[in-house]
Amino acid sequence: MPNAKAYSATSPTSPLALTTIARRDVTAHDVQIEILYCGVCHSDLHQVRNEWSGFLPTVYPCVPGHEIVGRVTKVGPAVTKFRAGDLAAVGCMVDSDGTCPECLAGLEQFCPNVTFTYNLPDKHLGGVTYGGYSDSIVVDQRFVLRVPANLGLAGAAPLLCAGITTYSPMRHWGVTRGKKVGVVGLGGLGHMGVKFAHALGAHVVVFTTSPSKKEDALRLGADEVVISKNADEMLKHAGSFDFILDAVSAEHDINAYINLLRRDGNITLVGAPEKPLAISAFGLIMGRHSLSGSPIGGIAETQEMLDFCGKHNITADVEVIPIQKINEAYTRLLKSDVKYRFSIDMASLRSE
Ligand code: NAP
Ligand code: ZN
User: Which residues line ligand 1 (CB under 6 A)?
Assistant: First the structure.
């Protein structure tokens, strides 16, 4: 069994540090990937610190990372989609049963037997799966994606989670030209949401708590920017949105956004704060507003999103970091200080 270098956390309070993990030998349908870049998602931080203990308790040691791009180094004899030397990508899932109605509908993210890229039982090696803060990974070809050749790899990595998580609900809720779309929280997910809503032709309004991000929001494709702490500015948009994407990682007042929806408007939560959000019934009742959530997206839609990005030249705006800076990056994530995604250059791990 090949070993891999990785960064892991051993408890909710310990920093991530260098370790060695086992990866499985390539089986018939497997693709072995040398990881070149891995994006840093706020979900990595939530899980490393066991903030989702009620939904998905963290098993330690935890090797996070689910925004993976790399180069194929080896394939199993039954692999038809990839050859050694190809670029390849892996997102938040590495397995599912393949037979349930959700899988048959191409919605593997809803499969009751889905295996996330890290922190879920690993049916090959026992223990739990280990993610992309590592120099290599072995994944069934069904869960390996193609990366369009024109995209820069450091900025392409975040598409595998931040990209699909914002693209999928926008497609589901019919974001198109003529629609007024809000994006709440200009972080890793939010900035991808702005890029997609803009590319889909919508009128895009960014809601941010960070006045310093205003110029960036406009450059990323927003038509307007609202500093959400300013009640007067918020009020100007009351009852006007077809769709709002809430990508905030922490506790906040979602009712302030529900009130901005027009009749039958929808607000979709993709942000997954540690604590429950309080909802005012009347905000939903009056205006027949709906509130929903959305997890990542299926494999076929993830490939569709990557191809869309290839066509429109969309990648994440990244700050490339060596893996040795990961703990500092987490501290900055908590201060909303990232423009707009950290992407780990895995060469830094190889040379450690
Ligand atoms: P991120 O880069 O840290 O961005 C979060 C943004 O939320 C911040 O940049 C900030 O934007 C805003 N924010 C932070 N604290 C806030 C507060 N107290 N009040 C109001 N706004 C605040 O995080 P991310 O990686 O984009 O992830 C965002 C959330 O989505 C996380 O909870 C993550 O776990 C979740 N997620 C869900 C899925 C899914 O499948 N549904 C997938 C990936 C991630 P401003 O500075 O603009 O205010
Ligand atoms: Zn993620």
Answer: 41-43, 46, 161-162, 165, 185-190, 208-210, 213, 247-250, 252, 270-273, 294-296, 333, 336, 338
